């Protein structure tokens, strides 16, 4: 099939590359010329495992191209995806300006029947708005479909190629659009993953409900961990005990330093806002958000309690990206933690395997960004583990002790075993588990 993807960010690029991988001819459109130029030069603007090889393969076979020319891409396409950002507006709602701008431009370009697919995360009712924006610009026939994306950054290619399910919202009776979407997704659902056809409102809401329940689990477990610390319980035991109940399941039960990223924070806010606009106060989500805000400060509070004051201390930070296997720092807890430490007079030396350049843009010279993990430890009064990259899991603890001024670790991701760290002479704080120390 001929496909155009408008918006070549995390979602659009993965979508375009994966659709090209199954033999479709894909034009990825972006208004950002520098991004298009980078991609044309064979370089990736983002880090995502497996993506680069896939992009290079399809570009070489001329199934995938990058352009700023939206009309030409749209006119060649049977299906046009809108995969632009829907950032948080000032009042918490999803800002639809980019989605609607693309809808208008697509409307102006249409020359024949085309299916326009909302891939961006958008509030209920957006499919209707997109339909109206296109209809204002054209007399050509078209369908608007809602197809929310559930991929996870860090495993985006895998998630897209092997989805748990594909959600497709179409207008009742729009068999033509439904058939095209089924055909497009058939290669990705061979293993039995269902294509769930529904109305557009349900599809749009499904995405927000999914992210909201995941954010709720995170905040819930963070609160369980905080209670564990007060009552002397170990959240690892509690997590395993509850996770083995099949009604609960084992995923998303890990406490940490709060959720971040480009999706959970903004999607929770947007769901709160559009529920409120409809006269419904979504009380649980208000609490989920408040818990998350305070959880981001918790590691810094533990440091302050340990040292008395952070003034003049040097803190090493391992991990800046909002989660492992990505260079994305949008709404990353690390940003809040660094600000908190600097405000209290500490110096920060930080290392991340992929997010160093992103971090440079955020922190400038306020933070010493190190090229190697151990460099961050030189002269540090403590190490804070903020993102659970795999290469932090089995470090050379002896070397760490030698480099650090004092052997203290604040582990925001519970990646080490407290008893082991105690035996190695570290004072070790983690989340929801007893502190390990030789004293
Ligand atoms: P992004 O910011 O990485 O990419 C958006 C791209 O759209 C940018 O390259 C931008 O230049 C481009 N763009 C904006 N306006 C344009 C226009 N008028 N014409 C052409 N290009 C335009 O965003 P993202 O992370 O890929 O997210 C896109 C959408 O997908 C959002 O709604 C997001 O909530 C949703 N989503 C994201 C993820 C994720 O993990 N990042 C997962 C699922 C859903």
Structure characterization notes:
The protein is an alpha/beta fold and 439 residues long. It folds into 3 domains: 2-198, Rossmann fold, CATH 3.40.50.720; 207-294, N-(1-d-carboxylethyl)-l-norvaline Dehydrogenase, domain 2 (Orthogonal Bundle); 296-429, 3-Layer(aba) Sandwich (Rossmann fold). The protein contains 17 helices and 14 strands. The protein has helices spanning 10-21, 33-40, 51-60, 70-76, 97-109, 126-135, 156-161, 175-185, 200-231, 235-243, 264-277, 283-295, 298-307, 333-343, 356-363, 397-403, 418-423, and strands spanning 2-6, 25-29, 64-67, 79-82, 114-118, 142-146, 166-169, 195-198, 314-318, 347-351, 368-369, 382-385, 408-411, 427-429. The strands form 3 sheets. A 6-stranded parallel beta sheet has the order 3-2-1-4-5-6, with helices on both faces. Strand 12 (382-385), helix 16 and strand 13 form a beta-alpha-beta unit. Helix 1 (10-21) crosses helix 3, helix 4 crosses helix 5 (97-109) and helix 5 packs parallel to helix 6. It is globular and about 75 Å long. The N and C termini lie far apart (67 Å). It binds nicotinamide-adenine-dinucleotide. Residues 6-12, 29-32, 35, 83-86, 98, 101-102, 120-121, 149, 151, 153, 262-263 line the site of nicotinamide-adenine-dinucleotide (NAD).
């Amino acid at each position: 099939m001929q496909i155009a993807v408008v918006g070549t960010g995390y979602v659009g690029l993965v979508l375009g590359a994966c659709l090209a991988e199954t033999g479709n001819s894909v034009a990825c459109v972006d208004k950002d010329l520098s991004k298009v130029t980078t991609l044309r030069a064979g370089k990736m603007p983002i880090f995502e495992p497996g993506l680069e090889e896939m992009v290079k393969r399809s570009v070489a076979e001329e199934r995938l191209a990058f352009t700023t020319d939206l009309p030409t891409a749209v006119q060649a396409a049977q299906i046009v995806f809108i995969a632009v950002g829907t950032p948080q507006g000032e009042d918490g709602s999803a800002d639809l300006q980019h989605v609607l701008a693309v809808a208008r431009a697509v409307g102006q370009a249409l020359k024949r029947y085309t299916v326009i697919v909302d891939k961006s995360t958008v509030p209920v009712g957006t499919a209707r708005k997109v339909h109206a924006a296109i209809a204002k610009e054209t007399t050509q026939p078209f369908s608007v479909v809602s197809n929310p994306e559930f991929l996870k950054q860090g495993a985006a290619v895998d998630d897209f190629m092997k989805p748990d399910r594909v959600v497709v919202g179409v207008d009742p009776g729009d068999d033509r659009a439904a058939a095209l979407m089924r055909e497009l997704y058939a290669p990705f659902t061979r293993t039995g993953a269902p294509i769930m056809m529904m109305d557009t409102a349900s599809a749009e809401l499904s995405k927000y409900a999914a992210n909201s329940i995941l954010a709720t689990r995170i905040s819930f477990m963070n609160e369980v961990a905080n209670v564990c610390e007060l009552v002397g319980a170990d959240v690892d035991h509690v997590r395993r005990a509850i996770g083995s109940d099949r009604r609960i399941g084992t995923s998303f039960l890990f406490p940490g330093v709060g959720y971040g990223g480009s999706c959970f924070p903004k999607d929770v806010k947007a769901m709160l806002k559009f529920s409120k606009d409809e006269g419904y106060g979504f009380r649980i989500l208000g609490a989920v958000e408040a818990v998350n805000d305070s959880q981001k400060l918790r590691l810094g509070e533990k440091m302050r309690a340990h040292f008395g004051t952070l003034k003049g201390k040097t803190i090493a930070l391992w991990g800046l990206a909002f989660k492992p296997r990505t260079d994305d720092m949008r709404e990353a807890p690390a940003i809040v933690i660094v600000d908190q430490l600097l405000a209290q007079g500490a110096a920060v030396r930080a290392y991340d395997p992929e997010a160093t350049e992103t971090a440079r843009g955020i922190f400038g010279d306020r933070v010493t960004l190190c090229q190697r993990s151990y460099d961050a430890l030189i002269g540090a009064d403590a190490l804070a583990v903020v993102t659970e990259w795999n290469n932090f899991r089995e470090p050379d603890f002896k070397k760490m002790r030698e480099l650090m001024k004092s052997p203290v670790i604040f582990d925001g991701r519970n990646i080490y075993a407290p008893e082991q760290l105690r035996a190695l002479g570290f004072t070790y704080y983690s989340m929801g588990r007893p502190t390990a120390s030789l004293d």
